[in-house]
Amino acid sequence: MTDASLQDTPREAGLGDYFALLKPRVMSLVVFTALVGLIVAPVPVHPFIAFVGILCVAVGAGASASLNMWWDADIDRIMKRTANRPIPSGKVQPEEALAVGLALSGFSVILLGLAANWLAAFLLAFTIFFYAVVYSMWLKRSTPQNIVIGGLSGALPPMIGWAIAAGNITIESTLLVALIFMWTPPHFWSLAIFVKSDYGRAGVPMLTETHGRRVTRNNIMGYMVALVPVALAIGFTSIGGPLYLAVSAALNMWFLKACFVVWRRDEEQAEADNFAAEKNAFKVSLAYLFLHFAVLLVLPATGFGGW
Q1: Where would you find the membrane-spanning parts of this chain (predicted)?
Q2: 306 phi, psi to nearest 5 deg
């Protein structure tokens, strides 16, 4: 065989290639927020049920990611940051990704229903459906508000965790969902500003493409302002308390300042320093969400949780 024919021969996919279909970095955030939702719920959970429940959430998140990669393979080939994903790189065939996504979806939902309860299983099924069908197949390519509405799928894991433990939906779990939902636009649009050309080449109607960076900056600031009362409201529930309020206030001031800097800049300033403020806002957003959930996680052990 010639060198050219060897290059054209697809190699057999390895375990690592299939694992990459599950978007493990995204899965880690899903698992963490679901775990916090489970732990802060006022009902003790048997460790085995908790383990199986969080495992099902992780598998369900991976399933929806695999279905997303199957559907988005055409635009993933165009975008620099996604061109090396398993399907566009030729490591995994599209039909394999579809089969993995469907199999893991069914497995995770059924197992969660049997191990925990069917409310948690329904919420997991809805999350998978929303991400794979509503967001990936419909919203992502049809509206610049794709990340806003589609963000619901990434916001639901703490409610699933709470439902695993308590078997219900409460104001606390709803506010945890609202926190992630309102956080997603300023988080993602900060990223979109400095990877603008990627979305344009792929034909994805990101707000930066359809309305420009100035409108995107305005929206980042608007959603950030709306995020603040949601984050603080958690402090007045049974899972919050004075310590949470103090930490949340500091985190909101930090993120608000980062978004304000992004909002006040013009394109000439941004391009002059290679979008340093936008990249900083994106990094701050990651710390902002992680630390909010981290403080909720440790509050019960400190004795400063609740009122």
Answers
A1: 26-43, 49-71, 97-115, 121-139, 220-237, 243-263, 284-304
A2: 75, -175
Measured distance CA(72)–CA(66) in Å, rounded: 10
- Which DSSP string do the residues of 89-127 spell out, in sequence order? TTSS-HHHHHHHHHHHHHHHHHHHHHHT-HHHHHHHHHH
Percent of the chain with pLDDT over 70: 93
Mean pLDDT (whole number) for 276-289: 97
With 0-12 / 13-18 / 19 or more C-beta atoms within 10 angstroms meaning exposed / middle / buried, residue 218 is middle
Return d(Cα 302, Cα 149) in angstroms, integer.
36
- For residues 185 and 148, the answer to whether their CB atoms sit within 8 Å is yes
Query: What is the fold of 14-168?
Result: Tetracycline Repressor; domain 2 (1.10.357)
- Rounded CA-CA distance 116/51 in Å is 10
The residue ranges of every structural domain in the chain are 14-168, 170-307
Q: Smallest Cα–Cα separation from 152: which of 172, 126, 118?
A: 126
Q: Note whether 262 and 278 are within 8 A (CB).
A: yes
The predicted pLDDT at position 9 comes to: 47
pLDDT > 80? residue 13: no
